[in-house]
Amino acid sequence: MKSFKVLLFCLFVTPGLVLAEAEDCEYDQPLPVAAVELLDSLKKVSAGLYKDIATLKVNHDGEGKLSVYFENEIPKLIKLTYKNGSGTVVKQVSFDDLAKGKPLIYENPDKPGKAIVLEKGASFKEGNYDFKFKIRSKVSPEEFQTYSINFRPDLEAPKITYNNKSFNKMIISPGISMFNWDGTFTKVEFKN
């Protein structure tokens, strides 16, 4: 029973150091099966990690970020988190679904329809992912401006580029008519 108490101490008293502490703890008897299964689950979870690749700013509205979830150093999911006066929206899609043609779509609740779209580009393969980053430029009929961006997945230093130049910030200018957003965007600036 002592080893289980030590395990609980290692897991819950120092949660930021779960795996390091669990490995450093000495046990005077075998762990119960449930504890071993819990440790295995924690190790699998810790093998996955979200890494922010770019911030997103929509002038006069809100801000957010694009993040990629890595599992064993391979990108698995891409997530858009966006916060404005109406709240926070989180959208994500797997790299597998992107490869199959399913895009990541952000729809603003105030103006229905696809406001921002991220979909696979011409080359979409492990180690080198091309994306089409699209912003709505006209509401009816819907039209988009498209920007080709590239993502090179490296867990330590992921790199995202536009026109072969690295960036970590996207600034989007909304279309404004009579001091109200008309549901469109006019341009995207890619900055470091």
Summarize the structure.
The chain is an alpha+beta fold.
Describe the structure.
There is one protein chain. The chain has helices spanning about 1-10, 20-25, 35-45, 95-100; strands at about 50-60, 60-70, 75-85, 85-95, 105-110, 110-125, 130-140, 145-150, 160, 165, 170-175, 180-190. The chain is an alpha+beta fold and about 190 residues long. The chain has a six-stranded mixed sheet. Strands 5-6-7-8-9-10 form a six-stranded antiparallel sheet, with no helix packed on it. The longest helix is centred in the first third of the chain and has 14 residues, at about 35-45. The protein starts with a helix and ends with a strand. Residues about 1-25 have low confidence and may be disordered.
